[in-house]
Amino acid sequence: MKLYANPTSPFVRIVRMVLIEKGLNESVDTAFVDAWADDPAFLDANPAGRVPTLVTDDGARLTEALLILTHLDAVGPKPAVLAGGPAALSAAGVAIGVFDAAVAVIIGRKSAPDFDTGLVGKKRFRTMQEGLRRLDAVFTDSQDFGLPAIAAITALDYLAFRFPNHDWGSLCPKVAAFRDAQGDRPSVRDTVPRG
């Protein structure tokens, strides 16, 4: 398998974390690309030019993080990352919404220097803040390391990386404590966003 990735993308990170958790990381050739550079090989794999993109051993091109995770659950060892029923998927959705809003701000800033203070920018920051609060409300001390945990850690780390002047952990102290407790876990440690 070949994974087209970027070391800062939170969508890539959840895939990379799952690869490590399932013991599939060694069977994947990871190619770090600049999604804005329109590399021909990358565009051949995904004409939308978005990461992550996974090319399977039989040549299928999977182009969305959750679709890739579905495939990894099918081919990788248990436990399934997408397990846990509606409550788990709901929590994961809140966390993914947090980092999706953050990515929207970063992209919005590329075209509008005042994006943060405009209507859409304010809404995205509200989504990040309220999402962390809601995520913390459903997080438990005995949280399994499935998609809700992976997405929550990814959300918190991505916000700290992109918006370091905010105290994001104060909005979700249970998530922050869980993240700190998992800091040495290879899937967490080896995928921290850098750029």
From TrEMBL:
- Domain GST N-terminal, residue spans: 1-80
The family database entries (InterPro entries) matched by this protein are listed as: Glutathione_S-Trfase_N (IPR004045), GST_Omega/HSP26 (IPR050983), Thioredoxin-like_sf (IPR036249)
| GO CC annotation terms, alphabetical | cytoplasm
Q: Which domain of life is it from?
A: Bacteria
One Pfam assignment:
GST_N_2
Q: Which PANTHER family match?
A: GLUTATHIONE S-TRANSFERASE OMEGA (PTHR43968:SF6), PTHR43968
Its name, as the record gives it, is GST-like protein YibF
Task: Tell me what organism the protein belongs to.
Answer: Methylobacterium frigidaeris
> Source taxonomy lineage?
Bacteria, Pseudomonadati, Pseudomonadota, Alphaproteobacteria, Hyphomicrobiales
